[in-house]
Amino acid sequence: MEDVTASLLLLLCGSLILGPTAGSGSGPDPERGRMELRRVQSLAAQPRYGGCWARALEHLDTRCRDMTSESQSRLALRFTHCHLSSSGRDFPSCPEGSEVSRCTAGMDPVAFNTYTEFFTHTHSICHFLQSEAWQSRTESTMYRLTEASAGVAEQLQSTRQMANELMEAQSVALQAQKEILSNGEELRATLRDSTQGVQAVFSDLSSASRQQQVALSQLFQQLSFLQSFLLMEAHSLTSCCYNAAALCTAYLITSTPRSSRARLLLLVLVCVNFYLEKKIYQHVLSSDQPEHLHVEQVSVYVAALRRLSVCVALCVLLLVCVRYRDPVQQSLEVLQQLRETQSSLQEALRRAGECPGETWSGSARLLCRSSSHHASVQTPPPLVEDRKVCPVVEVPVGKNPVLRPPPPRYSLRSRRRSDVI
Questions:
Q1: 176 Rama class: left (phi>0) / alpha (psi -120 to 50) / beta
Q2: What is the DSSP string of 340-370?
Q3: 93, exposed or middle or buried, with CB in 10 Å at 0-12, 13-18, 19+?
């Protein structure tokens, strides 16, 4: 590895030394290009026409990188324009982007010779710039290779050291393996004895664990039976107390006349609730779920059933109370209707007694009007203009009206007697 690195370094050094020399033999002189570049740079530093030279130098790197005749001709045109302008001579019009032949066609011999000289100088300057760029790249490459070779040398040194350490470790490992092989027989005998002892201990432990498992299973069965019995008794006691309280509450609520018709329904509902609670508890205990969940499930189901029973009882009680009708109030309403009917009949009889001498014509009739609670009195149209108007009595619907002659005039005593009756 070190030999290869040394060979690469020698090759790069030879190319760095021989590269510029070979280029000078086959092309323009780099020293001449360097001198021309310095002269153009000094002209660019002049205060009056330095701007023109400076603008020409801005395109020098780009044009020289292409290294074509077109790019060198345009650089020569820029240098010629600057030189003729500083010398006070005219330069033909040459717009940006036009062809070089059109720009040189209108030149006089002096301007064309100047253009030709600057074309040669431009070639030398570009060759000098390229040689400098190649030399800088070569130097940077040599520097990187030198650093890489130093790193490779360090890695080789560390690799050699690691190889030595690995050989030492391998020798130590071989010695340890020899010691392990020598002690293997003793360890095998010790392991055989310990294995036999562990197997005997495990057999004793397994027999003892089986006996303990049988005892624990019996204990758990007894505890499960005790838990189920206690839960049954507690639930029965709670259910009896709750339903007894519900029966008392239903009896007290239905003790009023308005709610007395709901008593039987509420008592039946309490009995149904008690029966369903028993069924729920039996169903939960007979299920395959773990026993520690039985109490929670019974509580949830019983609570839901009791809420439902309370809602149904409230609905029944509310319905009975809403549909209740007081018989006393109904009797009072009927009596009031009878009184109003009696007063209206008495008023009609009184008005009929005020016209005893008048004869009833065929046009007089009884007008009946449907009324559910009381009777009213209507007056028929007059028979003759000079006669008195006799009232017509309207009787309730459902009775056949009978035309009767007008009764005789009542006295004050008979009228009072009829009012009393």
A1: alpha
A2: HHHHHHHHHHHHHTT--SPPPPTT-------
A3: exposed
Q: How far, in Å, CA of 116 to CA of 118, rounded?
A: 5
Instruction: List Cα–Cα distances, 405 to 356, 357, 368, in angstroms.
Output: 9, 11, 18
Classified as helix, coil or strand, 280 is: helix
Q: What is the pTM of this model?
A: 0.33
- For residue range 257-303, what is the model confidence (pLDDT) as tens digits? 888 888 899 999 999 999 998 888 888 877 776 666 677 788 888 88
CA distance 382 to 125: 148
The per-residue pLDDT for 51 is 59
Task: Tell me which DSSP letter residue 386 carries.
Answer: T
CA 377/CA 369 separation, integer angstroms: 10
Kindly report, residue by residue over 108-122, the tens digit of the pLDDT.
676 777 777 777 667
Tokens of 145: 């290779």
CA angle 199, 200, 202 (to 5 degrees): 65
